[in-house]
Specification:
This protein folds into four domains: 131 residues, Response regulator (Rossmann fold); 170 residues, P-loop containing nucleotide triphosphate hydrolases (Rossmann fold), CATH 3.40.50.300; 87 residues, Orthogonal Bundle (Helicase, Ruva Protein, domain 3), CATH 1.10.8.60; 52 residues, Homeodomain-like (Arc Repressor Mutant, subunit A, Orthogonal Bundle). By secondary structure, the chain is α/β, with parallel strands linked by helices. It contains 19 helices and twelve strands. The C terminus is likely disordered. A five-stranded parallel β-sheet has the order 2-1-3-4-5, sandwiched between helices. The protein has a five-stranded parallel β-sheet with strand order 7-8-11-6-12. The protein starts with a strand and ends in an 11-residue tail after the last helix. Helix content is 47%, strand content 12%. Helix 2 runs parallel beside helix 3, helix 10 packs across helix 12 and helix 13 packs across helix 15.
Length: 457
C-alpha cells in the first residue's frame, strides 16, 4: 500500500482530500497542517507521494517541493493550485513536481493523476535498486582474487575509472576482461548512463559497422529506416568493444575517426555526428604483432593503447584458485539449492595443478558442472572426471602422493607451498591464502611449522 502525505494549512480541504485518498483510493494517508510539520513527517517516514497546497504560511508549497526533491528524490510531489495560478503550477513542474492540479478538480481525474505519480515513484525506486545491484555486482572487491597480479589490476582500475581515457584490456579468453570493463564503467562518472558491449568477432564487417555507427535509410538492402548505432545510443556513456583485434580495415578507419575527432558517420551518410563516449576495448591478441603483420593499423593501436591493463591468466596466479573455488561453490550451491561447501583435498589438488587454458570462465564451468553431478556434501575427484577427461589421470599420477591426503594434510601442504613461493614471508603468505596473519600463526602452530626469525615478517 502506497504512503501519501497530504499538506494543507486549511483543515477542511485537507480532511476531505485525505478521506478521498484513503477510502476511494485505498492508500495510507498522513496529514500535515503546514510545511514544517510536513518536513518532520518526511524525516520520520518514507512517503511515495506528497500532495501539497501551493499557498501556505511560512513554508509554502514551492519551498516544500524544493526541500522534498533535494532530500527525498524518489518521493513524487503533486501541487494543488488555486484557480488562475497556472503559472505557479508550471513553475512547480520545472522544479521537479510530477504535476499540478487546480482545486476544482474532478475526483476521478485526481485519483488517476495520483495513480500515475505513484507508478513513477515505484519505477524510479526500482531503477535505483537495480543500479545499486549492478554497482554491488561490479564493486572492486567483488572481482575475485587476492594475488599480487590481480591487486595490481584493481589498483590500476581504481585509478583510471574516474577519467575518460581510452582503456585497452588485454588477456587470454576467460580472464574476465568484460568484468573489468564493467567495473571501470560502474565506478566512473558515467555510471548513470549506458554501457553497451559488442563482441567484434561475432558479426561480419558490414553488420558490425551498422551496429556500431548506425546507417541511413536505403544505404543497403534491408535498410528500411534510419538507425542509430552503439556510439549514438551510448552518448555520455561507455562503449565496450571486445575482441577489437578482429575488426576489418574499414571498421578500423571509422573507429580511428571517432577517437581522433569524437565524430562518427552513419553508413550512407556524410554528415558527421558528434558523440561523447568513453571507449574500453579488449583483445586476446598481441596487437603489436598484428601491427607488424599489417592486419591492424598502427595509428589506431596507439589511440587505443592510452591506458593498457593486462589481466593475467589463472595459471600465473594459482593462489587465487582456492578463493575462486569458494566463491563459485557458494554461488552455485545457492542457485541449485545444494549444500556443497568444499572440494575434497584430492580434488583441490587437481585444481591447483591444472593449467586452466580457459581461465576463470573454465573454472566456473567446472565448478557448476561438478556441483550438479556430486551426490555428496563435497566435490570428489570422481565428480571432476567429466570436466577433465584427458587431464585428470595425468594430474593424479604427477601428484599421486596427495590423493589420499586428509583435509588437514592438504591444508598443511597448501600453507607450506605458499610459504615457499613467498620466501617464508608470513604477511604475504596470509594475504595469498586470504586469511589474517593471526589465523596463519595459529595454523603454523597447529601443524608444527617453524620459521626462522628473519623469515617471519
Amino acid at each position: 500500500m502506497a504512503d501519501i502525505l497530504v499538506v494543507d494549512d486549511q483543515e477542511n480541504p485537507r480532511k476531505a482530500l485525505s478521506f478521498l485518498l484513503s477510502r476511494k483510493g485505498g492508500y495510507h494517508v498522513e496529514e500535515a497542517e503546514d510545511g514544517n510539520s510536513a518536513i518532520q513527517w518526511l524525516r520520520e517516514k518514507n512517503f511515495d507521494l506528497v500532495i501539497t497546497d501551493l499557498r501556505m504560511k511560512k513554508i509554502d508549497g514551492i519551498e516544500l517541493l524544493k526541500r522534498t526533491k533535494k532530500d527525498f528524490p524518489t518521493t513524487e510531489v503533486i501541487v494543488i493550485t488555486a484557480y488562475g495560478t497556472v503559472k505557479s503550477g508550471v513553475e512547480a513542474m520545472k522544479l521537479g513536481a510530477y504535476d499540478y492540479i487546480q482545486k476544482d478538480y474532478d475526483n476521478e481525474e485526481f485519483l488517476l493523476l495520483v495513480k500515475r505519480a505513484l507508478e513513477k515513484s515505484d519505477y524510479v525506486k526500482q531503477v535505483n535498486y537495480l543500479k545499486g545491484e549492478l554497482r554491488d555486482k561490479y564493486r572492486f572487491e567483488n572481482i575475485i582474487g587476492n594475488s599480487d597480479a590481480m591487486n595490481n589490476v584493481l589498483k590500476m582500475v581504481s585509478q583510471v575509472a574516474h577519467t575518460d581515457s581510452t582503456v585497452l584490456l588485454t588477456g587470454e579468453t576467460g580472464t574476465g576482461k568484460e568484468l573489468i570493463a564493467n567495473a571501470i564503467h560502474t565506478n566512473s562518472p558515467r555510471r548513470d548512463k549506458q554501457m553497451l558491449a559488442m563482441n567484434c568477432a561475432s558479426l561480419p564487417e558490414n553488420l558490425l559497422d551498422s551496429e556500431l555507427f548506425g546507417h541511413a535509410k536505403g544505404s543497403f538492402t534491408g535498410a528500411n529506416r534510419d538507425r542509430k548505432g552503439f556510439f549514438e545510443e551510448a552518448d555520455m556513456g561507455t562503449v565496450f568493444l571486445d575482441e577489437i583485434g578482429d575488426i576489418a580495415p574499414q571498421t578500423q578507419v571509422r573507429l580511428l575517426r571517432f577517437l581522433q575527432d569524437g565524430e562518427i558517420r552513419r553508413i550512407g551518410e556524410n554528415r558527421p555526428i558528434r558523440v561523447n563516449v568513453r571507449l574500453i576495448a579488449a583483445t586476446h591478441k598481441d596487437l603489436k604483432k598484428e601491427v607488424e603483420l599489417n592486419t591492424f593499423r598502427e595509428d589506431l593501436y596507439y589511440r587505443l593503447n592510452v591506458i593498457p591493463i593486462h589481466i593475467p591468466p589463472l595459471r600465473e596466479r594459482p593462489e587465487d584458485i582456492p578463493i575462486l573455488v569458494n566463491y563459485f561453490l557458494k554461488k552455485y550451491s545457492k542457485k541449485f539449492n545444494k549444500d556443497i561447501a568444499s572440494l575434497s583435498p584430492s580434488a583441490l589438488s587437481i585444481f591447483m595443478d591444472y593449467d586452466w587454458p580457459g581461465n576463470v570462465r573454465e573454472l566456473e564451468n567446472v565448478i557448476e558442472r561438478s556441483l550438479i553431478l556430486s551426490k555428496k556434501d563435497n566435490i570428489e575427484t570422481d565428480d571432476l572426471a567429466i570436466s577433465f577427461p584427458k587431464n585428470i589421470q595425468k594430474i593424479q599420477q604427477s601428484r599421486g602422493e596427495k590423493n589420499d591426503m586428509s583435509l588437514d594434510e592438504m591444508e598443511k601442504w597448501l600453507i607450506l607451498d605458499t610459504l615457499e613461493r613467498n620466501n617464508n614471508n608470513q604477511k604475504l603468505t596470509a594475504q595469498k591464502l586470504g586469511i589474517s596473519t593471526t589465523t596463519l600463526w595459529r595454523k603454523l602452530k597447529k601443524y608444527g611449522i617453524t620459521l626462522g626469525e628473519s623469515e617471519s615478517s
